[in-house]
């Protein structure tokens, strides 16, 4: 718990300056801890989005490979076998599109990687110091 303090107007200027010099470093450390926590959270979200993009790329690769196999089968045998290859390729490409859109949303949620809450806290602290209100 913090110690009870008197009203600032009751304290001499030297005591106020001393108290300020003790409190400002703790305030800065707290703001830095908040910024670090926010950046770690955004980094995790960006990592998830990048993983989803990787999955989308892998699914797209399999889709292209299936399209190539389908073209070979279609040229070798003019039978309905190629139709099944096209269906499989279409399903894989639709899945790749879904993963890419989900990955894009995750990366967009993590950018810009600025610690907004910490910056807002610093702005508020600066305005309080400039305005002299508690």
Structural summary, described in words:
The chain has three helices and no strands. With 134 residues, the protein is mainly α. The chain has a domain of 87 residues. Helix 1 packs antiparallel against helix 2 and helix 1 runs antiparallel to helix 3. It is rod-shaped and about 95 Å long. The protein starts with 12 loop residues before the first helix and ends with a helix. The relative contact order is 0.13. The mean pLDDT is 80.
List keywords for this structure.
134 residues; mainly alpha; 3 helices
Low-confidence stretches: none
Question: In oligomeric terms, what are we looking at?
Answer: single chain
Number of strands: 0
Strand count, sense and barrel status of the largest sheet are: none
Q: What string gives the helices and strands in order?
A: HHH
Structural class: mainly alpha
Number of helices: 3
Shape: rod-shaped
Quick synopsis:
The protein is an all-alpha fold and 134 residues long. It is 82% helix and 0% strand. The longest helix is centred in the first third of the chain and has 64 residues, at 13-76.
Helices and strands, with pairings:
Layout: H1 13-76, H2 81-110, H3 116-131
């Amino acid at each position: 718990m913090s110690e009870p303090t008197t009203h600032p107007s009751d304290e001499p200027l030297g005591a106020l300056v001393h108290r300020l010099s003790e409190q400002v470093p703790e305030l800065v450390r707290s703001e830095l801890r908040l910024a670090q926590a926010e950046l770690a959270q955004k980094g995790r979200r960006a990592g998830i989005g990048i993983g989803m993009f990787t999955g989308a790329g892998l699914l797209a690769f399999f889709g292209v490979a299936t399209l190539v196999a389908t073209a070979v089968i279609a040229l070798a045998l003019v039978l309905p076998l190629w139709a099944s290859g096209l269906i499989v390729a279409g399903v894989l490409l639709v899945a790749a599109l879904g993963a890419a859109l989900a990955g894009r949303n995750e990366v967009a949620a993590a950018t810009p990687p600025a610690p907004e809450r910490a910056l807002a806290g610093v702005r508020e602290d600066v305005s309080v110091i400039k305005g002299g209100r508690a």
